[in-house]
Amino acid sequence: MTLDLIFKNKIVYMKALIIDDERLARKELVKLLEEHPSIEIVGEAVNADEAEQMINDLNPDLLFLDIQMPGRTGFQLLESLESVPLVVFTTAYDEFALKGFEVNALDYLLKPIQAERLSEAVQKILEKDRAKSGRTAGKKLGLEDQVFVKDGERCWFVNLANIRFFESDGNYIKVYFDANRPMIHKSLNALDDRLDERAFFRASRKHIINLSWVEAIEPWFNGGLMVKLRGGDKVEVSRRQAAKFKDMMSL
């Protein structure tokens, strides 16, 4: 989910959702954000279930997200989203701060939140925003989107542009980005339905490739193709998909 931008008097307005089970913590953050007119608070949620519904309804650009909440945690909420907005974690527990950086969160704010630290976070948000383009809710996921990937105790925010390919492994999908190979519990068919076909191609029953990573193509057995991706990975395109792939990659 990228940013739905409104330019007015040269200020970028971003829709923010506050997710925290503590009423006083939400109230204090709302008050502090009054000093930042670029951030428009469109809602408050008290738990992950309520937040998930509001995210679907309101399509916020930014989440101020508590980590420890009754029911599902903030991490579990992110895991349930197909595409995630920008995220700033808010937490009262120091031990969760490092965890936030491990998943590449934009920033984290330690409670009680200090005005100066919030200002720093807002600056990071606006800087991150300038490199993004608007996107209409309901469109398929493209290279400009980011997703939350969790495998055991490890989790990441990943820009889809950085994912080279997806590989089916039983009831799981292996996600290839950087040196990581996390497994997510999802079918390749379900993922294929959500990805923009202009950016991702279903190479076979087992693979979806990021077209922007394609470096070379060569003939393969039985009329198929072998695609070489930047970085050295090779993925076979089935004979059934080869003709379609050639059409997409040719002038």
Account of the protein in words:
By secondary structure, this protein is of the alpha/beta class. 28% of the residues lie in helices and 33% in strands. The chain has helices spanning 23-33, 48-58, 74-80, 95-102, 115-130, 188-194, 239-249, and strands at 6-8, 11-19, 39-45, 62-66, 86-91, 107-110, 146-151, 154-159, 163-169, 172-177, 183-184, 200-202, 207-210, 214-219, 225-229, 234-237. Strands 1, 2, 3, 4, 5 and 6 form a 6-stranded mixed sheet that branches. Strands 11-10-9-13-12 form a 5-stranded antiparallel sheet, with no helix packed on it. Strands 14-15-16 form a 3-stranded antiparallel sheet. Helix 2 (48-58) packs across helix 3 (74-80). The relative contact order is 0.11. Residues 1-10 and 133-137 have low confidence and may be disordered.
In short:
β9 (163-169) and β10 (172-177) form a beta hairpin.
Describe how the helices and strands are arranged.
Elements: E1 6-8, E2 11-19, H1 23-33, E3 39-45, H2 48-58, E4 62-66, H3 74-80, E5 86-91, H4 95-102, E6 107-110, H5 115-130, E7 146-151, E8 154-159, E9 163-169, E10 172-177, E11 183-184, H6 188-194, E12 200-202, E13 207-210, E14 214-219, E15 225-229, E16 234-237, H7 239-249
From the alpha carbons, calculate the radius of gyration and give it in angstroms: 20 Å
CATH superfamily of the largest domain: Response regulator
What is the H/E string? EEHEHEHEHEHEEEEEHEEEEEH
Q: How does CATH name the architecture of the largest domain?
A: 3-Layer(aba) Sandwich
Principal-axis shape: elongated
What is the chains' assembly state? single chain
Question: How far apart are the termini?
Answer: 30 Å
Count of helix runs: 7
The unreliable regions are 1-10, 133-137
Q: What is the top-level CATH class of the largest domain?
A: Alpha Beta
- The amount of beta strand, in percent, is 25-35%
- The total domain count is 2
Give a count of the beta strands, DSSP E runs of length 2 or more: 16
Helix content: 25-40%
Kindly name the structural category: alpha/beta
How many strands, what sense, and barrel or not for the largest sheet?
6 strands, mixed
Mean pLDDT: 87
CATH topology of the largest domain, by name, is: Rossmann fold
